[in-house]
Amino acid sequence: MSTVPLRVAVVCASNQNRSMEAHYFLSKRGFSVGSFGTGTHVELPGPAPDEPVYDFRTTYDQMYNDLVSKDRDLYTQNGMLHMLERNKRIKPRPERFQNCQDVFDLIVTCEESVYDQVVEDMNSREQVTCQPVHVINVDIEDNDEEATVGAILICKLCQCIQHTEDMEDDLDELLQEFEEKSGRPFLHTVCFY
Q1: CA–CA distance, 32 with 134 (Å, rounded to integer)
Q2: Beta strands per DSSP E along the chain
Q3: What is the Cα 14 distance to its own chain's centre?
Q4: Burial class, 126, CB count within 10 angstroms (exposed 0-12 / middle 13-18 / buried 19+)
Q5: Which residues on neighbouring strands pair with residue 12, listed in sequence order?
Q6: 3 state DSSP class of 137
Q7: First CA to last CA distance, the chain
Q8: 10 Å Cβ neighbour count for 192?
Q9: Which of 161, 144, 39 is nearest to 99 (CA)?
Q10: Helix (H, G, I), strand (E, B), or coil: what is residue 34?
Q11: What's the rounded Cα separation, in Å, for the pair 146 and 140?
């Protein structure tokens, strides 16, 4: 069992709901955690499929103020203002995984298309240290309730991994146990820094 906190990245499409809920849960339990999105821009539910859309450089506070000015009632009702309130207490702005140079022990993605983007990005990077990083996907529907359920599952998984004697040897068996208990399939691969 390692006494050093597991370095975890949680990744969804826009670094808004699922990854931020897991970021919140993991940080409260002492993990070294970062959260990210893989999209080209940040998309939030709104009055049309293509709006509102923000650049990853836009802070959560700027998004919040913009939505309040556009339609406070709509964005209160659909939960976006509440979500952005939580997000800005955790970090200033969304971050894009492809721009991150931090090193993690574990990267957890929240949907298969994001998993594919993360693996593709990791495999396109120059390998410098050859340090392994485990990339795991668990599909989490993008809504408030599932984000919380998924965050709890990710947190339990990370706690179990933290307490294994040898993550390299024990991870496949642990993931199989989590699949059986949760009824959710997990994808897993190893990439290298």
Answers
A1: 15
A2: 7-12, 32-37, 42-48, 51-54, 106-109, 132-138, 186-192
A3: 9
A4: exposed
A5: 37
A6: strand
A7: 23
A8: 13
A9: 39
A10: strand
A11: 6
The C-alpha angle 154, 33, 188, rounded to 5 degrees, equals: 45
Cα gap 80→100, rounded to integer Å: 25
For range 128-136, the mean pLDDT: 97
Under the banding of pLDDT at 50, 70 and 90, the label for residue 147 is: very high
Q: What gap in Å lies between CA 13 and CA 192, rounded to an integer? A: 22
Phi-psi region of 107 (alpha: psi -120 to 50; beta: other; left: phi over 0): beta
Q: What does the pLDDT average to over 10-39?
A: 97
What mean pLDDT is predicted for residues 11-32? 97
pLDDT score of 1: 60
Residues with Cβ within 8 Å of 117's Cβ and at least 6 positions away in sequence, in order, are: 38, 97, 98
Residue 59 DSSP SS3: coil
The three-state secondary structure class of 184 is coil
Q: Which residues pair with 137 in a beta bridge?
A: 109, 187
> What are the residues facing 154 on neighbouring strands?
none
- Using left for φ > 0, alpha for ψ between -120 and 50, and beta otherwise, residue 65 falls in alpha
**Angle of the 18-28 helix axis to the 80-90 helix axis, nearest 10:** 40
